[in-house]
Automatic annotation (TrEMBL):
<dbReference type="GO" id="GO:0003735">
    <property type="term" value="F:structural constituent of ribosome"/>
</dbReference>
<keyword id="KW-0820">tRNA-binding</keyword>
<dbReference type="InterPro" id="IPR002143">
    <property type="entry name" value="Ribosomal_uL1"/>
</dbReference>
<dbReference type="GO" id="GO:0000049">
    <property type="term" value="F:tRNA binding"/>
</dbReference>
<dbReference type="GO" id="GO:0006412">
    <property type="term" value="P:translation"/>
</dbReference>
<keyword id="KW-0689">Ribosomal protein</keyword>
<dbReference type="GO" id="GO:0015934">
    <property type="term" value="C:large ribosomal subunit"/>
</dbReference>
<dbReference type="GO" id="GO:0006417">
    <property type="term" value="P:regulation of translation"/>
</dbReference>
<dbReference type="InterPro" id="IPR023674">
    <property type="entry name" value="Ribosomal_uL1-like"/>
</dbReference>
<protein>
    <recommendedName>
        <fullName>Large ribosomal subunit protein uL1</fullName>
    </recommendedName>
</protein>
<dbReference type="InterPro" id="IPR005878">
    <property type="entry name" value="Ribosom_uL1_bac-type"/>
</dbReference>
<keyword id="KW-0810">Translation regulation</keyword>
<dbReference type="InterPro" id="IPR016095">
    <property type="entry name" value="Ribosomal_uL1_3-a/b-sand"/>
</dbReference>
<comment type="function">
    <text>Binds directly to 23S rRNA. The L1 stalk is quite mobile in the ribosome, and is involved in E site tRNA release.</text>
</comment>
<comment type="similarity">
    <text>Belongs to the universal ribosomal protein uL1 family.</text>
</comment>
<keyword id="KW-0678">Repressor</keyword>
<comment type="subunit">
    <text>Part of the 50S ribosomal subunit.</text>
</comment>
């Protein structure tokens, strides 16, 4: 793959083969984030699990102490008092069957997270094949199927992120923006890594954290010493 001059210059700033302590990795990642916009800093963790097996799935959600730096648009499927509660809590969109029809008929996806009350899951299930592949399907494990919609919305707006191992056994998750600086990014990184470690399935054998890498939107990956998190 041919890389641009900015990327090539960034690679020269560090040793791509070296394992950096978390603080050094964050610092190095920030130095390589030299695009003209506020780049997102992303964490990629290769896990020693086989996601083909149900008992080795790694999935959960955690509220990052400093948020993600992104404005999250929340759609809530609810009726009656819960719909009113969702609106008062700051949901961007609230509805029931009419929202399902809007998604089906207009291919509308102007939202980032879906929350639903348990009684609405039968309705939401009609568009599961559409929401699922986009990672938008409400799920009890991530706290997006709940009667406490106000708390769910509050957590999401405050910087709640969902992490989930993909079919290649890797978790990809943002930990903030370049503008956050070292300290805030380290706080977010520590909280997220703690959550991933605690989510280790009992069926997972051998090394759990295979590799940990930090990267900015346009920058190269910086390898992190995974043992520093254990």
């Amino acid at each position: 793959m041919k890389r641009g001059k900015r990327y090539q210059d960034s690679v020269k700033l560090f040793d791509k083969a070296a394992l950096y302590d978390p603080e050094q990795a964050v610092d190095t990642c920030l130095k390589t984030a030299n695009a003209k916009f506020d780049e997102t800093i992303e964490l990629s963790v290769k896990l020693g699990v086989d996601p083909r097996h149900a008992d080795q799935q790694v999935r959960g959600a955690v509220v990052l102490p400093n948020g993600t730096g992104k404005t999250i648009r929340v759609l809530v499927f609810a009726k009656g008092e819960k719909a009113k509660e969702a609106q008062e809590a700051g949901a961007d969109y609230v509805g029931a069957e009419e929202m399902v029809q809007k998604i089906q008929q207009e291919n509308w996806f102007d939202f980032d997270v879906c929350v639903a009350t348990p009684d609405m899951m039968g309705v939401v299930g009609r568009i599961g094949r559409v929401l699922g592949p986009k990672g938008l399907m409400p799920n009890p494990k991530s706290g997006t199927v709940t009667m406490d919609v106000a708390k769910a919305i509050s957590d999401i707006k405050a910087g709640k992120v969902e992490y989930r191992v993909d079919k290649t056994s890797i978790i990809h998750c943002p930990i903030g923006k370049k503008s956050f600086g070292n300290e805030k990014l380290m706080e977010n990184l520590t909280v997220l890594m703690d959550a991933i470690i605690k989510a280790k399935p009992s069926a997972a054998k051998g090394t759990y954290l295979k590799s940990v890498v930090l990267s900015s939107t346009m920058g190269p990956g910086v390898k992190v010493n995974a043992q520093k998190f254990v």
